């Protein structure tokens, strides 16, 4: 005890001296004390923030059914392994974020069952640390919003307000109402003519996919300020309704507490969150969704149970006819995919051939612009089966003929997962807008907006 006290005193004194001199303390430098007293008067405790120190990303490739069955079981059993997708088929490559305390275990399994694999990242926290440095302070002047940094919800909303003040004839701020935790779900409408057909862009339904809201603000800005005559024409001939962040509670949570949070923040006893993109009332919870609230793809207690889902549904129902919404685009990351309905079944939508053709044209346009490969196809065929998605609902229930879900950068074997470096915001957002413009132009040629 005496020895400990000497050691503790030795630590506490320099720390207090640093605090007194105004030196910023690293979190976690406060020594714990045996008597329950923190011994750190005046020193703030570390923030309540999830950390991913020494978490690894493995990319595994399945070569036989035994390995697939093993990994399906593993996903069910462990909440220390974050699967980015599900084990499904031979030849499939799957990324898995492995908690630091499971690395030895996991490596042993790979060895034992002879799985082909690569380690993509050895310390995931480094990616997050780098990413958090790319966030501008919440109280920055919103007109300084750019596409070289990431921004808090508050800044994005203030930016929309200030842009509406700057472009009062063309930009209107919209409000769908509040989220589960009382945050507004705000968007904008860019319009030059009330008679135009409308394109609806939904973004940020998955909280950690920060590139999606960034791409949405980029598109709004381009529609208002671009000097490109082709962009100006699309801004004049169509009305654009863009909601950059339809999951504001989750988005805020990723800045404040856990960069990897995906769902909304609804409480279910001991855990939180519904995957809002599994909650829509269209073949709800029939495929690729979970009934377990602890899971990342929890479909919710019932179809359309969540306030955020209801807000979008009410908005679309009220406006699909009035605003003539003919196109619905949902922005996500990552994997570089341009996908159309259905997500819940391999059956084909009635305009499958058109959507396939537009998607392929959009992929080709991106390839020509940046050299990046984006795969196109139905969501079921392209990424993995999933039900209760907003796109399926928009197409089947709301009757919007042109509906896509984009997975933006990075590639399927990305070392960053959802933590895309800020330097990639501009090229990624530009790819998204190029794809949308290509799809809209191609659909116009086929008479979808007559
Ligand atoms: Zn997503």
UniProtKB/TrEMBL annotation:
<protein>
    <recommendedName>
        <fullName>Zinc carboxypeptidase A 1</fullName>
    </recommendedName>
</protein>
<feature type="domain" description="Peptidase M14">
    <location>
        <begin position="149"/>
        <end position="443"/>
    </location>
</feature>
<keyword id="KW-1015">Disulfide bond</keyword>
<dbReference type="Pfam" id="PF00246">
    <property type="entry name" value="Peptidase_M14"/>
</dbReference>
<keyword id="KW-0479">Metal-binding</keyword>
<dbReference type="InterPro" id="IPR003146">
    <property type="entry name" value="M14A_act_pep"/>
</dbReference>
<keyword id="KW-0378">Hydrolase</keyword>
<keyword id="KW-0964">Secreted</keyword>
<dbReference type="GO" id="GO:0008270">
    <property type="term" value="F:zinc ion binding"/>
</dbReference>
<dbReference type="InterPro" id="IPR000834">
    <property type="entry name" value="Peptidase_M14"/>
</dbReference>
<keyword id="KW-0121">Carboxypeptidase</keyword>
<feature type="active site" description="Proton donor/acceptor">
    <location>
        <position position="407"/>
    </location>
</feature>
<keyword id="KW-0482">Metalloprotease</keyword>
<comment type="similarity">
    <text>Belongs to the peptidase M14 family.</text>
</comment>
<dbReference type="InterPro" id="IPR057246">
    <property type="entry name" value="CARBOXYPEPT_ZN_1"/>
</dbReference>
<feature type="signal peptide">
    <location>
        <begin position="1"/>
        <end position="19"/>
    </location>
</feature>
<dbReference type="GO" id="GO:0005615">
    <property type="term" value="C:extracellular space"/>
</dbReference>
<dbReference type="GO" id="GO:0004181">
    <property type="term" value="F:metallocarboxypeptidase activity"/>
</dbReference>
<dbReference type="InterPro" id="IPR057247">
    <property type="entry name" value="CARBOXYPEPT_ZN_2"/>
</dbReference>
<keyword id="KW-0732">Signal</keyword>
<dbReference type="InterPro" id="IPR036990">
    <property type="entry name" value="M14A-like_propep"/>
</dbReference>
<keyword id="KW-0862">Zinc</keyword>
<dbReference type="GO" id="GO:0006508">
    <property type="term" value="P:proteolysis"/>
</dbReference>
<dbReference type="Pfam" id="PF02244">
    <property type="entry name" value="Propep_M14"/>
</dbReference>
<comment type="function">
    <text>Involved in the digestion of the blood meal.</text>
</comment>
<keyword id="KW-0645">Protease</keyword>
């Amino acid at each position: 005890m005496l020895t400990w006290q000497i050691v503790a005193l030795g630590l506490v004194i320099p720390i207090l001296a640093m605090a007194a001199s105004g030196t910023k303390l690293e979190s976690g430098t406060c020594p714990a004390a045996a008597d329950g007293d923190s011994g750190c008067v005046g020193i703030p405790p570390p923030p309540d923030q999830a950390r991913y120190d020494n978490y690894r990303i493995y990319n595994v490739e399945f070569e036989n059914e035994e390995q697939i069955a093993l990994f399906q079981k593993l996903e069910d059993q462990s909440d220390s392994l974050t699967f980015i997708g599900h084990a499904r088929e031979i030849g499939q490559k799957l990324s898995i974020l492995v908690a630091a305390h499971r690395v030895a275990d996991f490596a042993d399994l790979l060895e034992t069952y002879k799985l082909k694999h690569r380690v993509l990242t050895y310390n995931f926290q480094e990616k997050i640390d780098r990413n958090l440095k790319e966030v501008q302070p919440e109280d920055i002047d919103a007109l300084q919003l750019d596409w070289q940094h990431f921004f808090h919800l508050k800044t994005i909303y203030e930016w929309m307000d200030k842009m509406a003040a700057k472009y009062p004839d063309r930009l209107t701020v919209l409000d769908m109402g509040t989220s589960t935790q009382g945050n507004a779900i705000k968007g904008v409408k860019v319009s030059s003519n009330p008679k135009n057909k409308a394109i609806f862009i939904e973004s940020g339904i998955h909280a950690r996919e920060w590139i999606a809201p960034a791409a949405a603000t980029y598109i709004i800005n381009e529609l208002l300020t671009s000097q490109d005559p082709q962009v100006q024409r699309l801004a004049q001939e169509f009305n654009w309704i863009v909601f950059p962040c339809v999951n504001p509670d989750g988005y805020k949570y990723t800045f404040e507490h856990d960069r990897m949070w995906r769902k909304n923040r609804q409480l279910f006893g001991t855990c939180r969150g519904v995957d809002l993109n599994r909650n829509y009332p269209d073949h709800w919870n029939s495929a690729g969704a979970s009934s377990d609230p602890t899971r990342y793809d929890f479909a919710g207690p019932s179809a359309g149970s969540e306030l955020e889902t209801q807000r979008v549904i009410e908005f679309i129902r009220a406006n699909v006819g009035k605003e003539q919404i003919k196109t619905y685009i949902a922005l996500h990351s990552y994997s570089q995919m341009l996908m159309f309905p259905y997500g819940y079944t391999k059956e084909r939508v009635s305009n499958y051939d058109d959507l396939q053709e537009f998607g392929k044209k959009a992929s080709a346009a991106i390839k020509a612009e940046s050299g990046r490969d984006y795969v196109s196809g139905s969501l079921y065929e392209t990424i993995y089966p999933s039900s209760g998605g907003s796109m399926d609902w928009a197409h089947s229930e709301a009757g919007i003929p042109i509906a896509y879900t984009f997975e933006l950068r990075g590639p399927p074997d990305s070392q960053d997962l959802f933590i895309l470096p800020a330097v990639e915001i501009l090229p990624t957002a530009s790819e998204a807008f190029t794809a949308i413009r290509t799809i809209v132009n191609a659909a116009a040629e086929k008479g979808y907006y007559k």
